[in-house]
Amino acid sequence: MKKEFVVIGLGRFGGSICRALSDQDMEVMAIDKDEDRVNEYATIASHAVVADTTDEATLKSLGIRNFDHVIVAIGDDIQSSILTTLMLKEIGVNNITVKAQNDYHEKVLRKIGADHVVHPERDMGKRIAHNIISNSVLDYLELSDEHSIVEIAANNHLLSGKSLIDLDVRARYGLNIVAIKRGNDIIVSPQANEVIHHEDILIVIGADTDINRFEKKAMSS
Amino acid sequence: MKKEFVVIGLGRFGGSICRALSDQDMEVMAIDKDEDRVNEYATIASHAVVADTTDEATLKSLGIRNFDHVIVAIGDDIQSSILTTLMLKEIGVNNITVKAQNDYHEKVLRKIGADHVVHPERDMGKRIAHNIISNSVLDYLELSDEHSIVEIAANNHLLSGKSLIDLDVRARYGLNIVAIKRGNDIIVSPQANEVIHHEDILIVIGADTDINRFEKKAMSS
Ligand SMILES: Nc1ncnc2c1ncn2[C@@H]1O[C@H](COP(=O)(O)OP(=O)(O)OP(=O)(O)O)[C@@H](O)[C@H]1O
Ligand SMILES: Nc1ncnc2c1ncn2[C@@H]1O[C@H](COP(=O)(O)OP(=O)(O)OP(=O)(O)O)[C@@H](O)[C@H]1O
Ligand SMILES: [Ca+2]
Ligand SMILES: [Ca+2]
Ligand SMILES: [Ca+2]
Ligand SMILES: [Ca+2]
Q1: Residue B17 CA to ligand 5 centre (angstroms)
Q2: Cβ-based neighbours of A179, under 8 Å, separated by 6 or more
Q3: B-chain residue closest to A121, CA distance
Q4: Whose CA is closest to B208, among A175, A23, A127, A195?
Q5: How many C-beta neighbours within 10 Å does residue B56 have?
Q6: In chain B, positions 28-57, which contact chain A (CB-CB < 8 Å)?
Q7: Does domain B4-118 have CATH number 3.40.630.30?
Q8: What is the pLDDT of residues B95-143, one digit of tens each?
Protein backbone atom coordinates (compact mmCIF):
# COMPACT_ATOMS: atom_id res chain seq x y z
CA MET A 1 0.00 0.00 0.00
CA LYS A 2 1.18 3.49 -0.83
CA LYS A 3 2.14 5.59 2.16
CA GLU A 4 0.12 8.74 2.68
CA PHE A 5 1.65 12.00 3.86
CA VAL A 6 0.44 15.43 4.87
CA VAL A 7 2.69 18.48 4.51
CA ILE A 8 1.51 21.57 6.40
CA GLY A 9 3.21 24.84 5.39
CA LEU A 10 4.44 25.21 1.81
CA GLY A 11 7.43 27.53 2.27
CA ARG A 12 10.75 26.55 0.73
CA PHE A 13 11.28 23.71 3.18
CA GLY A 14 7.75 22.27 3.24
CA GLY A 15 7.39 22.82 -0.50
CA SER A 16 10.57 20.89 -1.17
CA ILE A 17 9.41 17.97 0.97
CA CYS A 18 6.07 17.97 -0.84
CA ARG A 19 7.82 17.90 -4.20
CA ALA A 20 10.31 15.19 -3.23
CA LEU A 21 7.61 12.92 -1.77
CA SER A 22 5.44 13.41 -4.86
CA ASP A 23 8.44 12.67 -7.11
CA GLN A 24 8.70 9.31 -5.32
CA ASP A 25 5.04 8.62 -6.14
CA MET A 26 3.83 9.05 -2.59
CA GLU A 27 0.33 10.27 -1.81
CA VAL A 28 0.69 13.80 -0.45
CA MET A 29 -1.91 16.19 0.90
CA ALA A 30 -0.40 19.70 0.81
CA ILE A 31 -1.88 22.31 3.14
CA ASP A 32 -1.26 26.04 3.54
CA LYS A 33 -3.42 28.89 4.68
CA ASP A 34 -2.04 30.95 1.78
CA GLU A 35 -4.04 30.28 -1.36
CA ASP A 36 -1.23 31.25 -3.76
CA ARG A 37 1.12 28.71 -2.24
CA VAL A 38 -1.56 26.03 -2.38
CA ASN A 39 -2.14 26.75 -6.06
CA GLU A 40 1.57 26.30 -6.72
CA TYR A 41 1.35 22.73 -5.43
CA ALA A 42 -2.05 21.82 -6.90
CA THR A 43 -0.50 19.90 -9.80
CA ILE A 44 2.38 18.47 -7.74
CA ALA A 45 0.63 17.01 -4.68
CA SER A 46 -2.22 14.49 -4.78
CA HIS A 47 -4.41 17.03 -2.99
CA ALA A 48 -3.74 20.68 -2.19
CA VAL A 49 -5.95 22.37 0.37
CA VAL A 50 -6.25 25.92 1.69
CA ALA A 51 -6.69 25.58 5.45
CA ASP A 52 -5.61 27.07 8.75
CA THR A 53 -4.34 24.06 10.67
CA THR A 54 -4.69 25.72 14.03
CA ASP A 55 -8.42 25.11 13.67
CA GLU A 56 -9.32 21.73 15.15
CA ALA A 57 -12.57 21.27 13.24
CA THR A 58 -10.75 21.89 9.95
CA LEU A 59 -8.06 19.35 10.80
CA LYS A 60 -10.65 16.70 11.67
CA SER A 61 -12.72 17.37 8.55
CA LEU A 62 -9.61 16.70 6.43
CA GLY A 63 -9.36 13.18 7.85
CA ILE A 64 -5.74 13.75 8.82
CA ARG A 65 -5.86 10.92 11.33
CA ASN A 66 -5.79 8.38 8.50
CA PHE A 67 -2.45 9.54 7.11
CA ASP A 68 0.81 7.75 7.95
CA HIS A 69 2.95 10.79 8.60
CA VAL A 70 2.36 14.51 8.99
CA ILE A 71 5.14 17.06 8.44
CA VAL A 72 4.62 20.48 10.03
CA ALA A 73 6.77 22.96 8.09
CA ILE A 74 5.36 26.17 9.54
CA GLY A 75 8.33 28.33 10.39
CA ASP A 76 8.12 31.92 11.52
CA ASP A 77 4.75 31.57 13.24
CA ILE A 78 5.97 29.46 16.14
CA GLN A 79 2.65 29.63 17.93
CA SER A 80 0.82 28.13 14.92
CA SER A 81 3.46 25.45 14.65
CA ILE A 82 3.00 24.46 18.29
CA LEU A 83 -0.78 24.63 18.21
CA THR A 84 -0.96 22.56 15.02
CA THR A 85 1.35 19.92 16.49
CA LEU A 86 -0.65 19.76 19.69
CA MET A 87 -3.85 19.19 17.77
CA LEU A 88 -2.36 16.55 15.47
CA LYS A 89 -1.26 14.71 18.57
CA GLU A 90 -4.72 14.94 20.12
CA ILE A 91 -6.37 13.72 16.95
CA GLY A 92 -4.12 10.66 17.25
CA VAL A 93 -1.70 11.10 14.33
CA ASN A 94 1.00 8.41 14.58
CA ASN A 95 4.02 10.08 13.18
CA ILE A 96 4.66 13.82 13.36
CA THR A 97 7.78 15.61 12.09
CA VAL A 98 8.06 19.32 12.90
CA LYS A 99 10.44 22.05 11.77
CA ALA A 100 11.82 24.01 14.75
CA GLN A 101 13.04 27.59 14.62
CA ASN A 102 15.21 27.41 17.73
CA ASP A 103 16.04 25.28 20.78
CA TYR A 104 13.15 26.62 22.82
CA HIS A 105 10.72 25.78 20.05
CA GLU A 106 12.18 22.26 19.85
CA LYS A 107 11.81 21.77 23.58
CA VAL A 108 8.12 22.65 23.50
CA LEU A 109 7.53 20.47 20.44
CA ARG A 110 9.11 17.46 22.15
CA LYS A 111 7.09 18.04 25.32
CA ILE A 112 3.83 17.99 23.41
CA GLY A 113 4.78 14.79 21.60
CA ALA A 114 6.38 15.62 18.23
CA ASP A 115 8.10 12.42 17.04
CA HIS A 116 10.85 14.13 15.07
CA VAL A 117 12.09 17.71 15.28
CA VAL A 118 14.25 19.11 12.49
CA HIS A 119 16.36 22.26 12.06
CA PRO A 120 16.85 22.55 8.29
CA GLU A 121 18.70 25.88 8.22
CA ARG A 122 20.98 24.94 11.09
CA ASP A 123 21.85 21.51 9.68
CA MET A 124 22.47 22.85 6.21
CA GLY A 125 24.60 25.65 7.65
CA LYS A 126 26.83 23.01 9.24
CA ARG A 127 27.09 21.01 6.03
CA ILE A 128 27.94 24.06 3.97
CA ALA A 129 30.54 25.26 6.49
CA HIS A 130 32.17 21.84 6.13
CA ASN A 131 32.23 22.18 2.34
CA ILE A 132 33.54 25.73 2.52
CA ILE A 133 36.45 24.94 4.84
CA SER A 134 37.74 22.24 2.58
CA ASN A 135 38.37 22.85 -1.08
CA SER A 136 38.77 19.17 -1.83
CA VAL A 137 36.04 17.53 0.26
CA LEU A 138 32.98 17.89 -1.94
CA ASP A 139 30.40 16.11 0.17
CA TYR A 140 30.30 13.83 3.17
CA LEU A 141 28.30 11.43 5.30
CA GLU A 142 28.89 11.65 9.02
CA LEU A 143 29.05 8.07 10.36
CA SER A 144 29.80 9.02 13.95
CA ASP A 145 31.35 11.91 15.84
CA GLU A 146 34.74 10.67 14.69
CA HIS A 147 34.20 8.86 11.40
CA SER A 148 32.98 9.95 7.99
CA ILE A 149 32.75 8.99 4.38
CA VAL A 150 33.91 11.88 2.18
CA GLU A 151 34.09 12.70 -1.50
CA ILE A 152 37.55 14.07 -2.33
CA ALA A 153 38.36 15.71 -5.66
CA ALA A 154 41.48 14.17 -7.22
CA ASN A 155 42.30 17.15 -9.45
CA ASN A 156 45.73 17.54 -7.96
CA HIS A 157 49.10 16.37 -9.12
CA LEU A 158 49.71 14.48 -5.88
CA LEU A 159 46.76 12.20 -6.58
CA SER A 160 46.03 12.05 -10.28
CA GLY A 161 48.15 9.68 -12.32
CA LYS A 162 48.93 7.58 -9.23
CA SER A 163 47.66 4.06 -8.70
CA LEU A 164 45.99 3.10 -5.44
CA ILE A 165 49.11 1.07 -4.56
CA ASP A 166 51.26 4.16 -5.09
CA LEU A 167 49.10 6.12 -2.69
CA ASP A 168 48.62 3.30 -0.19
CA VAL A 169 46.26 5.41 1.90
CA ARG A 170 45.42 2.41 4.06
CA ALA A 171 48.95 2.03 5.40
CA ARG A 172 49.80 5.72 5.40
CA TYR A 173 46.55 7.22 6.68
CA GLY A 174 44.40 4.33 7.90
CA LEU A 175 41.85 5.21 5.22
CA ASN A 176 39.99 3.08 2.71
CA ILE A 177 38.96 4.16 -0.77
CA VAL A 178 35.57 2.49 -1.10
CA ALA A 179 34.76 3.80 -4.55
CA ILE A 180 35.89 6.09 -7.35
CA LYS A 181 33.43 8.35 -9.13
CA ARG A 182 34.50 8.77 -12.76
CA GLY A 183 32.05 10.75 -14.85
CA ASN A 184 28.78 8.85 -14.65
CA ASP A 185 30.44 5.63 -13.49
CA ILE A 186 30.98 4.49 -9.94
CA ILE A 187 33.84 2.03 -9.52
CA VAL A 188 33.06 0.19 -6.29
CA SER A 189 35.95 -1.46 -4.39
CA PRO A 190 38.57 -0.36 -6.93
CA GLN A 191 41.53 -2.68 -7.55
CA ALA A 192 44.97 -1.75 -6.19
CA ASN A 193 46.32 -1.12 -9.68
CA GLU A 194 43.54 1.31 -10.59
CA VAL A 195 45.08 4.61 -11.73
CA ILE A 196 43.44 7.83 -10.55
CA HIS A 197 42.31 10.27 -13.24
CA HIS A 198 42.45 14.02 -12.83
CA GLU A 199 38.66 14.34 -12.87
CA ASP A 200 38.04 11.44 -10.46
CA ILE A 201 36.30 11.83 -7.15
CA LEU A 202 37.53 9.48 -4.44
CA ILE A 203 35.01 8.12 -1.93
CA VAL A 204 37.02 7.64 1.25
CA ILE A 205 36.03 6.17 4.63
CA GLY A 206 37.89 6.64 7.89
CA ALA A 207 38.48 8.63 11.05
CA ASP A 208 37.99 12.39 10.63
CA THR A 209 41.49 13.10 11.94
CA ASP A 210 42.99 10.75 9.33
CA ILE A 211 40.84 12.25 6.59
CA ASN A 212 42.04 15.74 7.57
CA ARG A 213 45.64 14.57 7.58
CA PHE A 214 45.26 12.99 4.14
CA GLU A 215 43.48 16.02 2.78
CA LYS A 216 46.16 18.43 4.03
CA LYS A 217 48.96 16.25 2.71
CA ALA A 218 47.33 15.46 -0.59
CA MET A 219 46.36 19.05 -1.19
CA SER A 220 49.57 20.72 -0.13
CA SER A 221 51.62 22.36 -2.85
CA MET B 1 47.79 30.44 7.43
CA LYS B 2 44.29 30.48 8.89
CA LYS B 3 41.55 31.07 6.39
CA GLU B 4 39.43 34.15 6.97
CA PHE B 5 35.69 34.21 6.39
CA VAL B 6 32.92 36.77 6.44
CA VAL B 7 29.33 35.74 7.16
CA ILE B 8 26.70 38.37 6.29
CA GLY B 9 23.24 37.73 7.77
CA LEU B 10 22.96 35.92 11.08
CA GLY B 11 19.62 34.15 10.73
CA ARG B 12 19.43 30.43 11.44
CA PHE B 13 21.40 29.53 8.31
CA GLY B 14 24.09 32.21 8.48
CA GLY B 15 24.33 31.83 12.24
CA SER B 16 24.93 28.11 11.92
CA ILE B 17 27.68 28.66 9.35
CA CYS B 18 29.29 31.23 11.62
CA ARG B 19 29.20 28.81 14.55
CA ALA B 20 30.51 25.83 12.55
CA LEU B 21 33.39 27.82 11.05
CA SER B 22 34.31 29.21 14.47
CA ASP B 23 34.14 25.67 15.96
CA GLN B 24 36.78 24.70 13.40
CA ASP B 25 39.01 27.55 14.60
CA MET B 26 38.53 29.65 11.50
CA GLU B 27 38.69 33.45 11.61
CA VAL B 28 35.14 34.69 11.10
CA MET B 29 33.80 38.22 10.82
CA ALA B 30 30.05 38.08 11.49
CA ILE B 31 27.90 40.92 10.12
CA ASP B 32 24.23 41.76 10.52
CA LYS B 33 22.31 45.02 10.47
CA ASP B 34 20.38 43.79 13.52
CA GLU B 35 22.27 44.61 16.70
CA ASP B 36 20.66 41.84 18.77
CA ARG B 37 21.78 39.18 16.32
CA VAL B 38 25.29 40.62 16.25
CA ASN B 39 25.45 40.51 20.04
CA GLU B 40 24.49 36.84 19.96
CA TYR B 41 27.60 36.08 17.91
CA ALA B 42 30.00 38.47 19.63
CA THR B 43 31.57 35.69 21.70
CA ILE B 44 31.41 33.07 18.93
CA ALA B 45 32.93 34.87 15.93
CA SER B 46 36.36 36.53 15.89
CA HIS B 47 34.66 39.85 15.13
CA ALA B 48 30.97 40.74 15.14
CA VAL B 49 29.90 43.93 13.45
CA VAL B 50 26.61 45.80 13.08
CA ALA B 51 26.48 46.98 9.47
CA ASP B 52 24.18 47.31 6.49
CA THR B 53 26.09 45.56 3.72
CA THR B 54 24.17 47.29 0.94
CA ASP B 55 26.27 50.35 1.77
CA GLU B 56 29.44 50.31 -0.32
CA ALA B 57 31.46 52.62 1.92
CA THR B 58 30.71 50.41 4.90
CA LEU B 59 31.80 47.29 3.05
CA LYS B 60 35.06 48.90 2.01
CA SER B 61 35.80 50.24 5.46
CA LEU B 62 35.51 46.70 6.83
CA GLY B 63 38.35 45.56 4.59
CA ILE B 64 36.26 42.72 3.22
CA ARG B 65 38.45 42.42 0.17
CA ASN B 66 41.16 40.78 2.23
CA PHE B 67 39.03 37.83 3.32
CA ASP B 68 39.21 34.46 1.58
CA HIS B 69 35.54 33.76 1.35
CA VAL B 70 32.33 35.70 1.97
CA ILE B 71 29.00 33.96 2.67
CA VAL B 72 25.86 36.04 2.05
CA ALA B 73 23.09 34.52 4.16
CA ILE B 74 20.52 37.28 3.77
CA GLY B 75 17.23 35.55 2.99
CA ASP B 76 13.91 37.32 2.80
CA ASP B 77 15.27 40.64 1.62
CA ILE B 78 16.23 39.47 -1.88
CA GLN B 79 17.13 42.97 -3.01
CA SER B 80 19.68 43.37 -0.20
CA SER B 81 21.09 39.96 -1.00
CA ILE B 82 21.59 40.88 -4.66
CA LEU B 83 22.96 44.35 -3.93
CA THR B 84 25.40 43.01 -1.34
CA THR B 85 26.63 40.33 -3.74
CA LEU B 86 27.06 42.85 -6.53
CA MET B 87 29.15 45.09 -4.31
CA LEU B 88 31.31 42.26 -2.99
CA LYS B 89 32.04 41.35 -6.59
CA GLU B 90 32.94 44.92 -7.46
CA ILE B 91 35.22 45.23 -4.46
CA GLY B 92 37.02 42.17 -5.84
CA VAL B 93 36.15 39.44 -3.32
CA ASN B 94 37.46 36.12 -4.66
CA ASN B 95 34.97 33.63 -3.38
CA ILE B 96 31.32 34.43 -2.75
CA THR B 97 28.67 31.95 -1.59
CA VAL B 98 25.08 33.20 -1.52
CA LYS B 99 21.85 31.75 -0.18
CA ALA B 100 19.07 31.92 -2.77
CA GLN B 101 15.36 32.05 -1.99
CA ASN B 102 14.16 30.76 -5.36
CA ASP B 103 15.26 30.00 -8.92
CA TYR B 104 14.86 33.56 -10.10
CA HIS B 105 17.05 34.80 -7.25
CA GLU B 106 19.67 32.19 -8.15
CA LYS B 107 19.66 33.24 -11.79
CA VAL B 108 20.35 36.87 -10.90
CA LEU B 109 23.05 35.89 -8.40
CA ARG B 110 24.85 33.80 -11.01
CA LYS B 111 24.61 36.58 -13.58
CA ILE B 112 26.28 39.06 -11.25
CA GLY B 113 29.08 36.63 -10.44
CA ALA B 114 28.23 34.68 -7.26
CA ASP B 115 30.63 31.72 -7.16
CA HIS B 116 28.30 29.36 -5.29
CA VAL B 117 24.55 29.58 -4.83
CA VAL B 118 22.88 27.44 -2.18
CA HIS B 119 19.27 26.56 -1.36
CA PRO B 120 19.40 25.32 2.25
CA GLU B 121 15.67 24.81 2.84
CA ARG B 122 15.15 23.12 -0.51
CA ASP B 123 18.11 20.77 -0.11
CA MET B 124 17.22 19.85 3.43
CA GLY B 125 13.61 19.26 2.37
CA LYS B 126 14.84 16.70 -0.14
CA ARG B 127 17.05 15.00 2.43
CA ILE B 128 14.29 14.80 4.97
CA ALA B 129 11.78 13.50 2.43
CA HIS B 130 14.27 10.71 1.69
CA ASN B 131 14.55 9.87 5.38
CA ILE B 132 10.80 9.99 5.86
CA ILE B 133 9.98 7.64 2.97
CA SER B 134 12.27 4.97 4.25
CA ASN B 135 12.08 3.67 7.79
CA SER B 136 15.36 1.82 7.53
CA VAL B 137 17.59 4.24 5.60
CA LEU B 138 18.89 6.55 8.30
CA ASP B 139 21.15 8.77 6.27
CA TYR B 140 22.72 8.83 2.84
CA LEU B 141 25.32 10.34 0.55
CA GLU B 142 24.25 10.84 -3.05
CA LEU B 143 27.17 9.78 -5.26
CA SER B 144 25.42 10.37 -8.56
CA ASP B 145 21.88 10.48 -9.89
CA GLU B 146 21.82 6.69 -9.69
CA HIS B 147 24.22 5.69 -6.91
CA SER B 148 24.32 6.29 -3.19
CA ILE B 149 25.89 5.25 0.05
CA VAL B 150 23.21 4.63 2.69
CA GLU B 151 23.02 3.83 6.38
CA ILE B 152 20.55 0.96 6.93
CA ALA B 153 19.33 -0.03 10.38
CA ALA B 154 19.72 -3.78 10.92
CA ASN B 155 17.08 -4.04 13.67
CA ASN B 156 15.10 -6.60 11.74
CA HIS B 157 14.98 -10.38 11.98
CA LEU B 158 15.89 -10.74 8.30
CA LEU B 159 19.25 -9.07 8.91
CA SER B 160 20.32 -9.42 12.51
CA GLY B 161 21.96 -12.69 13.46
CA LYS B 162 22.98 -13.32 9.86
CA SER B 163 26.57 -13.27 8.66
CA LEU B 164 27.55 -11.27 5.60
CA ILE B 165 27.98 -14.59 3.71
CA ASP B 166 24.42 -15.58 4.63
CA LEU B 167 23.12 -12.32 3.23
CA ASP B 168 25.42 -12.24 0.21
CA VAL B 169 24.14 -8.84 -0.84
CA ARG B 170 26.78 -8.59 -3.53
CA ALA B 171 25.48 -11.56 -5.50
CA ARG B 172 21.83 -11.01 -4.68
CA TYR B 173 21.57 -7.23 -4.97
CA GLY B 174 24.81 -5.99 -6.50
CA LEU B 175 25.51 -4.08 -3.29
CA ASN B 176 28.60 -3.79 -1.12
CA ILE B 177 28.64 -3.39 2.64
CA VAL B 178 31.56 -1.00 3.09
CA ALA B 179 31.29 -0.70 6.87
CA ILE B 180 29.26 -1.62 9.93
CA LYS B 181 28.52 0.92 12.62
CA ARG B 182 28.35 -0.83 15.99
CA GLY B 183 27.91 1.54 18.91
CA ASN B 184 30.90 3.85 18.79
CA ASP B 185 32.91 1.52 16.57
CA ILE B 186 33.11 1.55 12.81
CA ILE B 187 34.12 -1.78 11.28
CA VAL B 188 35.53 -0.88 7.88
CA SER B 189 35.53 -3.57 5.15
CA PRO B 190 33.92 -6.21 7.39
CA GLN B 191 34.90 -9.85 6.89
CA ALA B 192 32.46 -12.26 5.23
CA ASN B 193 31.95 -14.17 8.48
CA GLU B 194 31.02 -11.03 10.46
CA VAL B 195 27.63 -11.56 12.14
CA ILE B 196 25.21 -8.64 12.12
CA HIS B 197 23.94 -7.46 15.49
CA HIS B 198 20.44 -6.18 16.05
CA GLU B 199 21.68 -2.66 16.83
CA ASP B 200 24.11 -2.48 13.90
CA ILE B 201 23.89 0.06 11.15
CA LEU B 202 25.06 -1.16 7.75
CA ILE B 203 26.86 1.27 5.44
CA VAL B 204 25.94 0.09 1.96
CA ILE B 205 27.07 1.35 -1.47
CA GLY B 206 25.35 0.68 -4.77
CA ALA B 207 22.79 1.66 -7.37
CA ASP B 208 19.68 3.32 -5.92
CA THR B 209 17.41 0.76 -7.58
CA ASP B 210 19.36 -2.10 -5.97
CA ILE B 211 19.36 -0.34 -2.61
CA ASN B 212 15.56 0.08 -2.85
CA ARG B 213 15.17 -3.59 -3.76
CA PHE B 214 17.34 -4.67 -0.85
CA GLU B 215 15.55 -2.35 1.54
CA LYS B 216 12.10 -3.60 0.49
CA LYS B 217 13.17 -7.22 0.71
CA ALA B 218 15.09 -6.91 3.94
CA MET B 219 12.34 -4.91 5.58
CA SER B 220 9.35 -6.94 4.41
CA SER B 221 7.42 -8.91 7.05
N1 LIG C 1 -1.76 28.16 10.78
C2 LIG C 1 -1.31 27.85 9.57
N3 LIG C 1 -1.99 26.98 8.78
C4 LIG C 1 -1.54 26.67 7.55
N5 LIG C 1 -0.41 27.15 7.02
C6 LIG C 1 0.32 28.03 7.75
C7 LIG C 1 -0.09 28.43 9.06
N8 LIG C 1 0.82 29.31 9.55
C9 LIG C 1 1.76 29.46 8.59
N10 LIG C 1 1.47 28.70 7.52
C11 LIG C 1 2.24 28.61 6.27
O12 LIG C 1 3.51 28.02 6.52
C13 LIG C 1 4.37 28.35 5.42
C14 LIG C 1 5.81 28.43 5.92
O15 LIG C 1 5.97 29.57 6.74
P16 LIG C 1 7.38 30.29 6.94
O17 LIG C 1 7.11 31.58 7.60
O18 LIG C 1 8.31 29.38 7.59
O19 LIG C 1 7.81 30.54 5.45
P20 LIG C 1 9.26 30.58 4.84
O21 LIG C 1 10.14 31.58 5.55
O22 LIG C 1 9.03 30.74 3.38
O23 LIG C 1 9.86 29.12 5.15
P24 LIG C 1 11.27 28.51 4.70
O25 LIG C 1 12.23 28.73 5.81
O26 LIG C 1 10.96 27.05 4.48
O27 LIG C 1 11.70 29.17 3.47
C28 LIG C 1 3.82 29.64 4.83
O29 LIG C 1 3.47 29.41 3.48
C30 LIG C 1 2.59 29.96 5.69
O31 LIG C 1 1.50 30.47 4.92
N1 LIG D 1 21.37 44.74 4.20
C2 LIG D 1 21.66 43.93 5.22
N3 LIG D 1 22.84 44.04 5.87
C4 LIG D 1 23.14 43.23 6.90
N5 LIG D 1 22.34 42.25 7.33
C6 LIG D 1 21.14 42.08 6.72
C7 LIG D 1 20.74 42.90 5.65
N8 LIG D 1 19.50 42.51 5.25
C9 LIG D 1 19.13 41.48 6.05
N10 LIG D 1 20.12 41.21 6.93
C11 LIG D 1 20.09 40.18 7.98
O12 LIG D 1 20.08 38.90 7.41
C13 LIG D 1 19.60 37.96 8.38
C14 LIG D 1 18.88 36.83 7.71
O15 LIG D 1 17.67 37.28 7.19
P16 LIG D 1 16.42 36.32 6.92
O17 LIG D 1 15.26 37.16 6.65
O18 LIG D 1 16.77 35.31 5.92
O19 LIG D 1 16.26 35.63 8.34
P20 LIG D 1 15.75 34.19 8.69
O21 LIG D 1 14.38 33.94 8.10
O22 LIG D 1 15.91 34.10 10.15
O23 LIG D 1 16.76 33.21 7.95
P24 LIG D 1 16.85 31.61 8.03
O25 LIG D 1 16.08 31.06 6.87
O26 LIG D 1 18.30 31.32 7.94
O27 LIG D 1 16.26 31.16 9.29
C28 LIG D 1 18.75 38.78 9.35
O29 LIG D 1 19.32 38.69 10.65
C30 LIG D 1 18.84 40.22 8.82
O31 LIG D 1 18.94 41.18 9.84
CA1 LIG E 1 24.72 10.60 9.91
CA1 LIG F 1 12.17 32.97 6.85
CA1 LIG G 1 14.22 29.80 6.30
CA1 LIG H 1 26.71 14.44 -3.45
Answers
A1: 14
A2: A186, A187, A188, A189, A190, A202, A203, B143, B149, B205
A3: B13
A4: A23
A5: 14
A6: none
A7: no
A8: 999 999 999 999 999 999 999 999 999 999 999 998 888 778 888 899 9
Please tell me the predicted confidence (pLDDT) of residue A137.
83
Q: CATH number of the domain at B123-219, out of 3.30.70.1450, 3.30.2270.10, 3.40.50.620, 3.30.43.10?
A: 3.30.70.1450
Residues with CB under 5 A from ligand 3 (ion): A 142; B 139
Chain B contact set for A129 (CB, 8 A): 16-17, 20-21, 24
The pLDDT score that the predictor gives to residue B216 is 81
Q: Where are the domains of chain A?
A: 4-118, 123-219
- Helices and strands in chain B: count of H runs, count of E runs: 9, 11
Q: How far A145 CA lies from chain B's nearest CA (Å)?
A: 9
Q: What is the pLDDT of residues A52-84, one digit of tens each?
A: 999 999 999 999 999 999 999 998 999 999 999
User: What is the rounded distance in angstroms from the CA atom of residue B68 to the CA atom of residue B79?
Assistant: 24
For residue A32, list its beta bridge partners: A50
B145 Cβ inside 6 Å of ligand 2? no
Ligand that comes closest to the CA of residue B102: 1
What are A23-35's pLDDT values in tens digits?
988 999 999 999 9
Ligand nearest to the CA of B58: 2
Q: Which atom of ligand 1 is nearest to the CA of A16?
A: 26
ipTM for the complex? Answer: 0.86
Q: Is B189 helix (H, G, I), strand (E, B) or coil?
A: coil
Q: DSSP of B40-54, one letter per residue?
A: HTTTTSSEEEE--TT
In the structure, ligand 6 is a single-atom ion and the residues with CB under 5 Å from it are: A 139; B 142
Residue nearest to atom 18 of ligand 2 (CA): B75
